[in-house]
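in:
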């Protein structure tokens, strides 16, 4: 029995998940969108092992069946649904004696039939368990995580705003929309030697003001002591030549460049930590 769905909704659903279909032809089981009708929902899902996306549309009908849209047929299906626009589409699946599964899309004026060999998809991933395990994971601190940027770009079709969380350092990044119509997973990259603290330190160091004197870099984010152990600090200002201006702590209006500080009041040093 078919389920009835707005063509626009089905078109949007397939666009949301289509970036996640695998193009690895050595794994034909992943070279298709899987369609499932079950429990008053039509699910559409795709995965290439690195990311997984599932979208659902609530239906009045409570049919149960599975079908596939091979990756090579997906552009034609999207184009057909785009033309159908605001119409209602009857979506049905039928398995024949040879094991092929025919997915039929029918509107008041046209229809489309996609046939897939079910033997190619015998071992489709258990997506319910995969997603369930991520959703039910206990939350752990995530000091730092790493993701492949190529895969991050896939989520732009899913929605303007997505909510995201990660249950632990080696858990998937979970992305979901507001109305539980779309959910995605992206696995992190395992860079075991990557640490957050060195990255933070490098950036903070880059932000700090510095000055170069005779080929040596001096940081200006802390105090400096002159030959008499009087404390000087960077004023945050520079002269017209771009040289940083230093002032004696407690004395205003008597600024000197760092070079002048060394020449007139040096040697200078930073206090011990």
């Amino acid at each position: 029995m078919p389920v009835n769905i707005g063509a626009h909704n089905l078109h949007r659903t397939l666009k949301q998940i289509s970036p996640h279909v695998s193009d690895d032809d050595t794994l034909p089981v992943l070279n298709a969108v899987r369609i499932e009708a079950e429990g008053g929902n039509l699910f559409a899902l795709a995965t290439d092992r690195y990311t997984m996306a599932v979208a659902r549309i609530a239906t009045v009908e409570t049919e149960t069946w599975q079908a596939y849209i091979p990756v090579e047929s997906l552009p034609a299906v999207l184009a057909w649904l785009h033309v159908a626009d605001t119409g209602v589409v009857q979506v049905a699946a039928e398995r024949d004696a040879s094991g092929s599964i025919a997915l039929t899309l029918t509107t008041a004026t046209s229809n489309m039939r996609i046939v897939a060999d079910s033997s190619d998809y015998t071992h489709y991933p258990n997506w319910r368990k995969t997603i369930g395990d991520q959703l039910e994971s206990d939350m752990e601190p995530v000091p730092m995580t790493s993701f492949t940027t190529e895969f991050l770009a896939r989520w732009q079709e899913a929605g303007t705003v997505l909510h995201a969380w990660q249950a632990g350092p080696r858990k998937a990044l979970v992305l979901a929309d507001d109305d539980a119509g779309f959910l995605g997973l992206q696995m992190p990259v395992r860079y075991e030697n990557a640490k957050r603290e060195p990255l933070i330190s490098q950036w903070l160091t880059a932000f700090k003001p510095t000055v170069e004197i005779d080929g040596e870099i001096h940081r200006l984010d802390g105090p400096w002591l002159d030959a008499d152990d009087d404390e000087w600090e960077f004023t945050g200002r520079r002269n017209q030549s771009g040289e940083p201006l230093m002032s004696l702590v407690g004395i205003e209006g008597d600024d000197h460049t760092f070079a002048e500080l060394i020449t007139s009041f040096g040697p200078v040093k930073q206090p011990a930590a």
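note: Helices lie at 7-17, 74-84, 127-135, 149-152, 196-207, 258-265.
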